[in-house]
Amino acid sequence: MLKGIIPMTYCFFNKNNTIDMHAMRDQISLIKKIGSQGIGCLGLATEVNKLNFLEKKKIIELVAEISNNDLPIVVTISGKNIKEYKKLIEVAQFYHASWIVFQPLLKKNTTDKDCFNFFNKIILNVDARTLVGVQNAKEYIGVGLDSAQILKLYKKFGNFRAIKGEASATLIEKEIKKYPKNLKVFNGRGGQEIVDNYLAGCSGIIPSLEGADIFIKIYKLLEQKKIDEARKMYQKILPSIVFSMQSINSLICYGKRICAYRMGMKEVHDRSPGLLPTDFGINLAKYHVKNIGKF
Predict the structure, then answer these.
(1) d(C-alpha 33, C-alpha 92), whole Å
(2) Domains in the chain and their CATH numbers?
(3) Confidence check: pLDDT of 107 > 90
(4) Quick one: which of 69, 99, 75 has its CA closest to 9?
């Protein structure tokens, strides 16, 4: 079963708006090098809503090529329609994804019930041997599942055994108490409350990459029950998390720049629509890099 720190890839772009495959290779290799317990792709931090099917497919292929079966692969799947979801499921399964995480199919006026009905149908397309779950990110996308709906999916599908949450530690602790022990819960939110998430019962976190090396050290301390040491290490990176995690747009704009500068990249190009950086914001990102250090 998956556990620990599973960094989510960013999507780096060239000046001409194409995906920067060189930077993507460097990023995926780095995730492997720092001792991650897995690698995630096509999540909110990957700007998945700005990618077409072929770009999504290429990222999955690249992750599979570089991870080379050494790391469990977590693929978040979303699309413009059912057909695209099904095609991405096929790609993820072809490349032996360890866990497929579904985002809801969002349309105008999508409700929580619509999300449940969609998940209830789309999971049928996943091989029963592949772990499946949902990204329950109501705080960010406005809709999601309650614990009763999640338990219905758990009882119906033998491979529905993991959830990617995006909630505070206090909220997620209440949810975990309602679930069977083999329904694993991961949190995200850029590593916010990583220590409290662990104490709340999370199996791990799926953060963006910029602080993942530090999160891995924190996770190891937590596994050794060195809670106070873990909290001290968290306090050092917390200002950076607060800076970049104001919103998903902020994460993509500034969190990605912190990641890039820590990797040694000099330029970061943005794909619209999205938040454009200010000189002040870039200087703050560089300050946080100086404080944390390069990879």
Answers:
(1) 23
(2) 4-209 (3.20.20.70)
(3) no
(4) 75
